[in-house]
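ligand=NAP
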Amino acid sequence: MKYRKLGNSELYVSEISLGSWGINEGVEDNNAKACIYKALELGINFIDTSNSYAAGAAESFLGDVLQGIDRSSYLLGTKVFFPTSPTDKGLSAPQIRKQIDASLTRLRTDYVDLYQCHRYDPETPLEETMMALTEVVRQGKARYIGFSEWTPAQIQSACELTGVEHFVSSQPQYSMLWRDPEAEVFPLCQANSISQIVWSPLAQGVLTGKYQAGNVPPPNSRAANEKMNWYLLDNLFSDRILTAVEKLKPIAQGLGLSMAQLALAWVLQSEYVSSAIIGASRPKQIVDNVAASDISLPTDVLKAIDQVLISVVHT
Ligand SMILES: NC(=O)c1ccc[n+]([C@@H]2O[C@H](COP(=O)([O-])OP(=O)(O)OC[C@H]3O[C@@H](n4cnc5c(N)ncnc54)[C@H](OP(=O)(O)O)[C@@H]3O)[C@@H](O)[C@H]2O)c1
């Protein structure tokens, strides 16, 4: 496993990191636990979660599983914004103060390495949010701060504020199929020493080649999981996309890579990306995926991928 610096921080994150969205949402507990252990064993050092995943249950699960493991041997990132009750939501100062404490309690730790705004909160002045995040860092409850899916204008405004902690990470959706942040977010962040830690780098499983156009999704797959398939089916799952992805198979085979490895290696070709945050429903997927670290894809392969996907890429 290779590690990359995270923005203007002292953190080095594994090129492949582990998400926790599936915990309590269809990924069976024993598998979720085995995935965490396998990830740590294979050099993954960054685990991403949120106070909103499974209404806090993902954080509690991680808190239990990670007990007894040297806290300095891994990095933990969580997030705040989405509702955790009818009255608890957003990025106001009282919410940030309340939510960080609740996250730390569930995670059974004194600090997180990265505290991320899950989205931008248009109902709270940006200054209030940034001051509250600064307080969290200065109290030692988070080492660094980040954001997920903010617009360039929102990012720019945050970078211009003085007297506050600054973001070190951006968490956008990014994959061979979803290239939206390339045009503006990536260069803007780089100019402000902010790295990308990207979500759904496998397009939620579509890029692993497990789905075929016109066929029913295999049982035990994300697309068949009614708790988690809503985003996938709405955004990444059409016969056009699946037909195009099928054409990547000879490219992966020619390189001796699995489809998942090709997709993750592609994401990691970007100089802006520090880590690809994968999901996994069973440990053998972790074994497959970590092998993508340190794979270099030749220019002609990158061109061939673009030709195959040109009509279905989201920008
Ligand atoms: N910031 C945000 O708004 C946001 C949004 C979404 C996610 N995230 C974060 O990003 C993390 C990753 O997202 P994601 O789970 O959508 O990412 P992903 O890596 O694109 O998809 C993961 C899913 O693909 C399948 N898979 C993974 N490796 C495989 C392999 N080698 N072979 C076959 N299938 C494989 C598994 O599903 P099945 O086995 O069930 O098919 C797995 O759960 C989340 O856990 C969360 O921490 C953040």
